[in-house]
């Protein structure tokens, strides 16, 4: 029968510190304390004090006992390190996801490391629930919700414009200048105003533009006004779903030379980049937001936050940084991302 393990006491740790300082072999220390030598090895290794000053470097029984007690409290890392917890909460308030926070810490070479799971556990702990931290998560919900398919939409798409005809380098994101577009709707009681969201597939750079209604001519015209400031190499194609608001897509070819492609029916996931972007925008603009009265500066701030937030898929660079590195440096004024902001001339 295996005997239960008994933690080392402060008195035993005092003896370990005294004998270790006297350079007595670990096997001898273990025999005198009636402990396995692996217990002694593990105790010294786990509770060794690493300090720049040699005088304060080593194994000290009081410090070792305090460290051992702290580990047995079963508190999460962020509960034990309030300075790190404040940093995490600040980044959550800024709109960063737990994965972005953890990734940025690794990429910046910070001494403290976190996993996104550690942040999620902290958010949903009793301490995090009292602070309401779940409200700062990307989806701001307590539990997962079932996702439903969208209703089919009627729009005739020529065979040459279906997503099967889209060049493979677009799906692979190996070339720059390929966009995805979608319409974000809000409550009908507040009017017909809506937003067009545009996302470049490689850089994830996002543009938002406001529409008075779902009229296809107006939607396409607003889209063209935002994209025309880019060089031709930065506006090669765009992918839509089959909503009737995109029926006037030939205008993009006429004005900008952009090819248009359309997802299969009931398959919005085929333009997943902009769908993901819409979810991020919903963190700042819920469905009950009154788009008609929303100041242009508020829309501008949302774009800046999205394009200034590091992304894991970009190696924790920001979409704006990737966009600027992909544009022709010989066209500084034409390629200024500020010209893509809502309300810019």
From TrEMBL:
InterPro entries: Integrase_cat-core, IS30-like_HTH, RNaseH-like_sf, RNaseH_sf, Transposase-Integrase, Transposase_IS30-like. One of its GO terms (molecular function) is nucleic acid binding. Keywords: DNA recombination. PROSITE patterns: INTEGRASE (PS50994). It holds the Pfam family HTH_38. The keyword Lipoprotein does not apply. One of its GO terms (cellular component) is cytosol. GO terms for biological process: DNA integration; DNA recombination; transposition. Residues 163-327 form the Integrase catalytic domain. It comes from the Bacteria. This is Transposase, IS30 family. It comes from Microvirga lotononidis.
């Amino acid at each position: 029968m295996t005997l239960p393990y008994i933690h080392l006491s402060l008195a035993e740790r005092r003896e370990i510190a005294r004998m270790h300082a006297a350079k007595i072999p670990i096997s001898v220390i273990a025999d005198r304390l009636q402990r396995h030598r692996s217990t002694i090895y593990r105790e010294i290794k786990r509770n060794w004090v690493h300090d720049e000053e040699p005088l304060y470097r080593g194994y000290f029984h009081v410090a070792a006992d305090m460290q051992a007690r702290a580990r047995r409290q079963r508190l999460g890392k962020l509960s034990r390190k309030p300075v790190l917890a404040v940093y995490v909460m600040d980044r959550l308030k800024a709109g960063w996801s737990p994965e972005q926070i953890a990734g940025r810490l690794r990429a910046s070479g910070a001494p403290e490391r976190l996993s996104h799971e550690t942040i999620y556990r902290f958010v949903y702990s009793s301490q995090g629930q009292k602070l309401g931290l779940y409200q700062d998560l990307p989806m701001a919900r307590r539990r997962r919700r079932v996702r439903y398919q969208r209703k089919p939409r009627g729009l005739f798409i020529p065979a040459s414009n279906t997503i099967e005809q889209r060049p493979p380098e677009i799906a692979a994101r190996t070339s720059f200048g390929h966009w995805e577009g979608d319409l974000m709707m809000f409550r009908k009681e507040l009017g017909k105003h809506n937003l067009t969201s545009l996302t470049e597939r490689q850089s994830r750079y996002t543009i938002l533009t406001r529409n008075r209604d779902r009229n296809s001519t107006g939607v396409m015209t607003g889209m063209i006004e935002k994209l025309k400031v880019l060089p031709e190499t930065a506006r090669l194609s765009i992918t839509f779903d089959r909503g009737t608001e995109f029926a006037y897509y030939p205008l993009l070819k006429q004005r900008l030379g952009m090819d248009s492609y359309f997802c299969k029916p009931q398959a919005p996931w085929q333009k997943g980049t902009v769908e993901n972007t819409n979810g991020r925008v919903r963190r700042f603009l819920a469905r009950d937001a009154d788009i008609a009265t929303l100041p242009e500066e508020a829309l501008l701030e949302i774009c800046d936050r999205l394009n200034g937030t590091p992304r894991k898929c970009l190696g924790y660079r920001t979409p704006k940084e990737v966009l600027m590195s992909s544009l022709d440096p010989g066209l500084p004024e034409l390629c200024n991302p500020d010209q893509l902001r809502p309300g810019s001339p």
